[in-house]
Structures are given as structure tokens and as C-alpha cells.
Amino acid sequence: MRSDPSELLELAVEVAQSAGSLLLNKRPAEIAVTATKSSPTDIVTDMDRASEALITSALKAARPDDGLLGEEGTAEQGRSGVRWLIDPIDGTVNYLYGIPAWSVSIAAEVDGQVVAGVVHVPPLAETFTATRGGGAQLDGAPIRANQPVPLDQALVATGFGYASARRAKQAEVVRGLLPRVRDIRRAGSCAIDLSWVASGRVDAYYERGPQPWDLAAGVLIAREAGAVVAGLHGRPPSTELTIAAPRGLFEQLHDLLAAAGADRD
Ligand code: IPD
């Protein structure tokens, strides 16, 4: 079976949009919180599970030999060299409260490298896409990250983990950052934050904690839009810390976060 990035992207977009329709049209008035994960506020709803089930069965039907890794527990090895990273709802708390900033994020890796990604934002009817080397798009039109601005003029998105101890440290980091930037945004979906770096709605993003399924598609989209996306001291973006910003601003934010120990709890 072929693993051409544009074919993988086409499938990812189709599946993400079907999951988005399910999530929009079948959102119950009262959403059942079926489980919690890392803390009592880290929730899973029936709709996270329904979305992941729709996505995994559609991908398996189209490409039975591929591997799968999903936030709600899907983990299948596969034999084709292609693996899908799936966040069925990124921004579950926003979904629960009806805040229109949640997304479906699907990325395709070939031999461990992400080559295609979609972040679909159903409540805003927006679809961010990228293929490796093929640029990033919003609803099919090319997007670029902002030109770098000095740190004190930068609008910086971030997010916070669910565990209280980690949040205490994250609050300390924000306390040092806030007086030194234009402002902070906390939209509530890491995939949207990275897509907003890609489309210039924010200048930069950083966060400690997001998992591979939260990050994979958004990292590719931000990179393909021209942003630098990395961890501290040349490390790759990861759960430890991910920073995304245009070169020039990246270094300023990196140095401040490194000095603040933003990669530690
Ligand atoms: C969360 C969102 C949020 C980020 C958290 C993530 P979820 O993902 O991306 O913006 O701050 O770290 O866990 O739980 O809604 O899929």
C-alpha cells in the first residue's frame, strides 16, 4: 500500500472531518464524564471514545496494515511502516463547557517521521493541514507564521497540565514571563495553539506536558509554516517541553524558559 504524504493527508482530512461532524452533531446537552486520567480534572467523555472509535475504524478500513496510537487507548503496531497518531478531541474541557476551541488532530508517521497532519477545528469550521516539505494550509490556502518580533511584543500561547504540582511550577514560569511579553493566551488545545502559531494568530507557543498525539500534527503544521519547533538545548519537541516560534523570537523565548527551568516540575 502506498504511503505518499498527500494521499495520507487526504485520508486524514476526510476522517477528521467525519469525526468533527459526529462531535458537533451528536454533542449531548449533558455530557457524561466517563473517566478521569492523570487527575480528577483530566477527563474523558463518551464523545472522546466515540470519536476515537470512528477514526480508528475508518483508518483501519482504508489501510488495514497501518499502526495506530490514540489518546483514549488505541495502540496497534501495524506492518506497513505507517503509524497514525490520533487525538479524538484536543481541548476536551472546552468541548465539555461548549467553548468553541477544540479540535480533532490526526498525523501520519512513515518510519517514525511525521509526514502529514491535520488539525480540524469543527466549531470554527477550520481545517489546518501540512505535508512534510509541502507547506502548511488553512482551508487549502497557504499560511505562514509571523515575522519574529522582540519578546516584549510577542503574543505567547501556552497551556497547563492537569496535575497540581506541575501547575504550581507552570504558574511560577508564567509569573516570570508575563511581565516580559505582550500578553499570554491559554486557548485550551495544544493542536490549536500550534496551528495558531502557523497562521500568525499568536507569535509563539510553549508548553510542558502535551503527549505525542496532542503534538504530532500541530508540530508539522507549525514547522511547515516556517516556525522553529523544538525543546530546550536542541532537543526535539516532546512532552518534556515544546517551544514554537519564528527564528529570532524562538531563541529569546527559549533562553527565558531555560533559565526558568520550564522543563521541570
Ligand atoms: C490538553 C490540551 C491542552 C493542554 C493539555 C492537554 P486534551 O489535551 O491540549 O491545551 O494544555 O496539556 O492535555 O486532554 O484536551 O486532549
Strand content: 25-35%
Number of separate helices? 7
Strand/helix succession = HEEHEEEHEEEEEEHEHEHEEH
Structural class: alpha+beta
What global shape is seen? Answer: globular
The largest pleated sheet is described as: 8 strands, mixed
Q: How many beta-strand runs?
A: 15
Kindly report how far apart the N and C termini lie.
44 Å
Spatial order of the strands forming the largest sheet = 4-3-5-6-7-8-9-10
- Unreliable spans are none
Which small molecules are bound? D-MYO-inositol-1-phosphate
How helix-rich are the residues, as a percent range? Answer: 25-40%
Radius of gyration: 17 Å
Q: Determine the mean pLDDT.
A: 95
Structure summary:
This protein has 265 residues and is of the alpha+beta class. It has helices spanning 5-25, 46-62, 92-97, 164-177, 190-198, 212-224, 249-260; strands spanning 33-36, 43-45, 67-70, 75-76, 82-90, 103-110, 113-121, 126-131, 136-138, 141-142, 155-158, 183-185, 204-207, 228-230, 242-245. The protein is built from seven helices and 15 strands.
How would you describe what is shown here?
The structure is a single chain. With 265 residues, the protein is α+β, with helices and mostly antiparallel strands. Helix content is 35%, strand content 26%. The chain has helices at residues 5-25, 46-62, 92-97, 164-177, 190-198, 212-224, 249-260; strands at 33-36, 43-45, 67-70, 75-76, 82-90, 103-110, 113-121, 126-131, 136-138, 141-142, 155-158, 183-185, 204-207, 228-230, 242-245. An eight-stranded mixed β-sheet has the order 4-3-5-6-7-8-9-10, with helices on both faces. Strands 12-11-13-15-14 form a five-stranded mixed β-sheet, with helices on both faces. The chain has a two-stranded antiparallel sheet with strand order 1-2. α1 runs antiparallel to α2 (46-62). It is globular. The chain starts with a helix and ends in a 5-residue tail after the last helix. The mean pLDDT is 95. The structure holds D-MYO-inositol-1-phosphate. D-MYO-inositol-1-phosphate (IPD) is lined by residues 71, 87, 90-92, 159-161, 188-190, 207, 209-210, 214. D-MYO-inositol-1-phosphate is lined by residues 71, 87, 90-92, 159-161, 188-190, 207, 209-210, 214.
